[in-house]
Design brief:
3-stranded antiparallel beta sheet; OB fold (Dihydrolipoamide Acetyltransferase, E2P); 7-stranded antiparallel beta sheet; about 140 residues; globular
Length: about 140
């Protein structure tokens, strides 16, 4: 598993480095989307998670959820467009789960449109260390504690 500045990045995931999100294929034509360890470390302790509702559409590059911490409120952007088919109910009631384990705490499950082209644009975990090192340097982020 790659580690960049103390932040774990599992190599079995696909990453949208620009938006600090990860994707994993569920196997039924859907994908799960979550926040990276970098995203949760930058945001701080999460206090609220508001996903798009099941059945709603997400446009590529737009928000699939809103995340709030004591110092930040903002969108969790999805590289893939599609229909929300699942929401992590546990994260709704306990948003700080994402701080404890961002890779077990997926946000939404999406039936993506044009997944093959989106997937090709994502960074595989085995190749994510260098792009994340550059991203963290450009944002002045020291790393995960």
């Amino acid at each position: 598993m790659p580690t960049v500045r103390g932040c774990n990045l599992p190599d079995d995931l696909l990453y949208d480095v620009e938006n600090h999100t990860w994707f994993t294929e569920v196997g039924d034509g859907t994908v799960r989307i979550g926040m990276t360890a970098i995203a949760t470390a930058m945001a701080g302790q999460l206090v609220a998670f508001t996903p798009k509702k099941i059945g709603r559409s997400v446009r590529a590059g737009r928000s699939c959820a809103t995340v709030e911490s004591g110092k930040w409120v903002g969108p969790a952007k999805s590289a893939a467009g599609g229909e929300v088919v699942g929401v992590n109910e546990d994260l709704l009631t306990n948003p700080s789960m994402a701080n404890a384990d961002p890779y077990a705490s997926w946000m939404v499950q999406l039936r993506p449109e044009d997944w093959d082209s989106v997937k090709a644009a994502l960074t595989p975990g085995s190749e994510v260390a260098a792009p994340y090192e550059a991203k963290m340097a450009s944002e002045g982020f020291e790393g995960c504690a």
